[in-house]
Every structure is written in C-alpha cells, then in structure tokens.
Amino acid sequence: MIVSLNNNAEKLATAPGAISNVNSLIAATSKGQVILNKGSADGYQVGMKLSIERVTETVKDPATGKVLRQLTQKIGLAEIVEVDAASSVAKIVAGGKFKVGDMAKPAR
C-alpha cells in the first residue's frame, strides 16, 4: 500500500481536488490579476484559492544566519484562472496593492 502511494505521489498531488502545499511568489501584477511563479507542475490548478501575504519579518538563527521563519500578514485573496506547467494567473478576489515578491499560499 505505501509503495503504491509513493509510486503514485505525483499523480495524487496533481489530481483534481488535490490541494497543493507549495507556496508561490507574485512575479508580476496587472489590471486586477497577478502572475505567480508556480504552475501545474507544483499542483496548482484553475479554481484554486490563494491567500496573498506579505512578509513582515524574517527570523534568522543568530548563530548561522539561516532563515528560520518568515512572519506574514494576509493582504488579500486570489483565485487561479489560468495555469501552465511553470506559472499561474490569478484574479484578485479581495484586497489589493499586491507587489512583486508577495507570497501566495494555498487557502485552506
């Protein structure tokens, strides 16, 4: 059973109704929509809702400088309307004034 799940993990991740865990970044904004740097290869699909968030603070390990966590603030909501393998286009549903580099997280 587990071997079967492992062998089919990619198919399951991109199956209709599957929810991606992959966060993306806004690559461009234009007239009520945003272009994201993730697409169908990452499990993104038309109709998926995304929480748009802005990083407010980056917490780093004081010993190594490695980023431990990014604290974010929700600034809006978007819904994917077009997807290719490497990118997505989402219409803005709520909020606005998004900018390149803002984070898009699959809404739960």
Structural class: mainly beta
**Structural shape:** globular
Question: Class in CATH?
Answer: Mainly Beta
Give the strand order of the largest sheet, numbering strands 1, 2, ... along the chain.
1-2-5-4-3-6
**Sheet bearing the most strands, described?**
6 strands, antiparallel, barrel
Low-confidence spans: pLDDT under 50, at least 5 residues?
none
| Total number of strands | 6
- Mean pLDDT comes to 87
What can you see in these coordinates?
This protein is mainly beta and 108 residues long. The protein has one domain (2-106): Thrombin, subunit H. The chain is built from two helices and six strands; from the N terminus they run ααββββββ. It has a six-stranded antiparallel beta barrel. A hairpin with a 2-residue loop joins β1 (24-30) and β2. The protein is globular. The mean pLDDT is 87.
